[in-house]
Amino acid sequence: MADTLRIKIEVLRYNPEQGGEPHFQTFEVPFTHDTSVLQGLQYIKDHLDGSLTFRWSCRMAICGSCGKMVNGVPVLSCHTFLRDYYPGKLRVEPLNHFPILRDLAIDQSDFLNNKLPSVKPYVMPKEQKPLSAGTHVQTPKQMHQYYQYSQCINCLLCYAACPQYGLNPKFTGPAALALLHRYNADSRDRGWDERAELLNAEEGVWGCTLVGYCSQVCPKDVDPAHAINQNKVNSTMDYFGVLKFLMPKGGA
Amino acid sequence: MKRSNEPIFWSLFGAGGMLSALIAPILIFITGIITPVGLWMPPQAFEYSRVLGFAQHWIGKLLLLAVISLFLFHAVHRIYHGLHDLGVHAGTGAMVAAYGSALAGTLIAAYLLIAVGF
Amino acid sequence: MAQVRTYTRPMSGWWLKNPYFVRYMIREASSVFLAIYAVILLVGLWRLTQGEAAWDAWRAALTSPGSILFHWIAMLTVGYHAYTWWKVAPKTAPDLRIGGRPLPECAIAGGGWLATVGASILIYGIVRWM
After folding, report:
1. Is B44 on the interface with A (CB under 8 A)?
2. Which of A133, B50, C27, C121 could make an S-S bridge to A129, C-beta 3.0–4.6 Å?
3. Which chain B residues have a beta carbon less than 8 Å from that of A204?
């Protein structure tokens, strides 16, 4: 192809069987105008070094599997293009703040096993209705109160962007707290009290210092910083006992 | 999970952050730069009798107390959390020192505002 | 599953690795200058209670080059705090909507910056002419 160029990709390598420190390995990869960073990594795996390990699935920015640090910025590698780094080079690393399993694959279990379930990410209605009673209705206006937060794909870019999670992994973190707010803000949900203990804790919203980078890097325009900081106000009102007078759902 | 007492400190931090975002740059500019240099501000603006009158008026007292106290509470909150950001996990001692000094500054300011007369 | 030997990278120097974090740390560091300024005002208040000579000595101390330099740095860093305070205000504000659409972030931040400019002009006018 006439318009094929070559670019250098430095990849962080780590082998758990050998242990020790991770190191960078440089590969040279051909690319065209529409080659994504993910395709660059796949080229390495297919043609240069089959042992390179990384996660990916959908290639269209919806599965949330292929997050990587590219030149220090958390991105979806399928949604980022090699052309934007040319004529420079790229440095591809696993997502920050997570333990590295192998090469670019991180251990997501803290998020999947601890953080995500801890916010009770499901609608808790006031009372369970039988199926025969029909659906829980909601107006478009009510839906807009949480819609944006429901777009999260659990890609963990926001955790890689959050130094507070890196400094203290007990912090519940951006995506899980945004989901906590997504359900609290849902007109069908009455789970505020059940989620309040986590929300009001140091591990909840109070672990955040509003760096704000989480909202910046989100590929789905979820705004975790807004979710968390609105809930600092809610948590404060709850602390001083005035929230129950202001809650649209009456705190029930 | 333990309920955080952060709402108390965060409220003071927020009040100080709001007040300082509104007026701190101009206050520093007036009291620390243009008045000492003698530019765009006549020296009489800060002569003894005028400032004393301001500090003796209840509005002046309220403003001085709010500025000194809330600026301090805002600042120590960020300094305390900044230590954590720098990897210094100073613990309860640092917390007491940080917010304690802001409280001390508040009490001293309140005492001086009473001592300055009415 | 057998335990895999993972590698966790250290956090040291994290804030130097991304300009976004450097700006965050400057924002946080502005508080040091604000605290020193509050102490300077507190000392001024103390000197005021001691009479005219003490007050004039405090004012004279403020004319030293070191003091002027400090206040320049303090004004710039605290000014940066003011800029960022309003810039992040859309994150702390409630979910503001007009006609079902979220209020644009620049409207909230812009309103804040205008408020700071307005308050500054007002204070300058009061100190100078009232």
Report:
1. no
2. A133
3. 1, 4
C118: pLDDT strictly greater than 50 = yes
Q: What is the pLDDT of residues B17-45, one digit of tens each?
A: 999 999 999 999 999 999 999 999 998 99
Residues sharing a CB contact under 8 Å with residue A169, sequence separation 6 or more, in sequence order: A97, A110
Q: Which chains touch B (3 or more CB pairs under 8 A)?
A: A, C
Residues in chain C with CB shorter than 8 Å from the CB of B40 are 128
Q: Do B11 and A236 touch (CB under 8 A)?
A: yes
Q: Which of C20, C92, C100 sits opposite A141 (nearest CB)?
A: C100
The C-alpha R_g of chain B, in whole angstroms, comes to 17
ipTM of the complex: 0.96
Strand bridging mode C97-98 / A90-93: unpaired
Which amino acid, residue A203? E
How many Cα neighbours within 13 Å face the side chain of A10? 12
| Distance from C-alpha of A23 to C-alpha of A69, rounded to nearest angstrom | 15
DSSP state of B61: H
**Angle ∠(B57,B63,B66) on CA atoms, nearest 5:** 140
Q: What is the mean pLDDT of each run of 10 residues along chain A (252 residues)?
A: 85 94 97 96 98 97 97 97 95 98 97 97 91 90 93 98 97 98 95 95 96 97 96 94 71 43
Most distant pair of Cα atoms in chain C: their distance: 79
The rounded distance, in Å, linking the Cα atoms of A55 and A112 is: 16
A176-209: string of b/e by CB count within 10 Å (b at 16+)? bbbbbbbbbbbbbbbbbeebbebbbbbbbbbbbb
Is the whole-model pTM more than 0.90? yes
Q: How far is CA A235 from the centre of its chain?
A: 23
Strand partners, A70: A73, A92
